[in-house]
Amino acid sequence: MSQYSLPLCVAVSLALLLPGGTTAQEASQTTVAAQPPVPYASVNELNGILAQVKQTAQNMQADLEKMRIDRWKTDSSTKRQTQANVDSIQRNLKSALPDLLPQLSNSPEDLAVSFKLYRNLDALYDVFGSVVEAAGAFGSKDEFQSLSNDMSGLENARRGFGERMQRLASAKEDELGRLRTQIKTMQAVPPPPPKKIVVDDTEPPKKPPAKKKSKPATAPPASTPPSN
Question: If 52 and its partner were Cys, which of 143, 157, 159, 208 is the partner (CB 3.0–4.6 Å)?
Answer without folding.
Answer: 157
